[in-house]
Amino acid sequence: MTTPEDSSAFVPSKSPLRWLMLGLVWLLYASFGITSGTIAPLVGPIVDDLDMTYSQMGLVLGAWQLVYIVTAYPLGTLIDRLGVRRSLGIGVFVVWLSLVLRGVAGDFPTLFLAVALFGVGGPIISIGAPKVVSLWFEGNERGLAAGIYTTGPVTGMAIALATAASVVMPLTGTWRGISLVYGAVVLVIMLMWWIFARDVQSQPGAVGQTDSESVSLMKMLRILLRIRNVQIIVVLAVATFLLNHGLNNWLPTLLQERDMTMSQAGFWTAASTLAGAFGLLVIPALARNGYRAVTIAVLLLLASGTTVGLATLNDTSLIGVLILSSIVRVPMMPILTLILMETPGVGALRMGAAGGLFFAAAEIGGFGGPFLLGILRDATDSLTWGVLFLAVISAVLVLTLPLIREHRR
Predict the structure, then answer these.
(1) pLDDT in tens, 344-355
(2) CA distance linking residue 88 with residue 320, whole number of Å
(3) Are 247 and 310 members of one domain?
(4) Residue 21: which domain range?
């Protein structure tokens, strides 16, 4: 279904349909989280069944992020051209296909390719989500919408992590049941999207926007990279994903180094994940239009301080900084995308291309953060120096924020 484009009275940001679109996008992003979280809790059974090494499993776990770096930008421009309904529908189909193929993989290469396929469908959802917000919401309401949709992948991943080993395997008798159980969930979400989602056009007459239908990938890239806000946000994207993915992937190990047992580390890691979801709901909504760069600066300073605490504190004080760390770190991504979509020269019309550039750069940090901390841990036999390095990077990034120009409305 499509919204009639010839109705000049239709204003997406005033229509109650915007909440339907936000709910549908939340479901798509939850399917993203479910699919990305299916392998990690079942590493042992998968390695045994497919006769894989743990090095090969490491490659499987990182397969989609590596593909993501290459595919994000061109897929972002495709979203601008196809519209969100068709492009996100294609994206969730590819995500579902990746999930199904995992369950029929017979060896390392076929499992690697099945997971790598997620790096084609996943970017369409993560880039298309802010595109939907830019089309259907305006002003300060965008902050609330961005906070809501970004809880989707957190929720989806939490569901997969909590149920894969405890529900799916006992229910189906095999790790391959992830394709049947989670595949059915994603299939229903995909059908709901195709039935209920609607398209609206960007408004080419808006300030700083031009028609991009015939612009080549490289020309659009040059146009975007000439915008100062885009340049700074790309740098911040790499660094914030370096911080978040670096800490998130090594957090259980870090907590064990701070004298927690394995079960305690798992419990408090889960608790911090829920705290991050709380931060997503609250902080982007409070980050008002025109003051989002200031909000990012405050969050980076708090992230730097709490990251130092993670490397140096113990007991109750460690738990306190752990919870605060997740609350301040997780909302940085949606706030940065809000600044991006409101930058003259980007807007709703180019948000797909700009979002693709953002996430392509960000996943360099997403892959590099865990890898860097692993190298430093091998070199020093501790995560402390790697975590402190992330704290320094976070503090230095604050110096870039005065260069961002926001246009208050």
Answers:
(1) 888 777 788 888
(2) 39
(3) yes
(4) 12-196
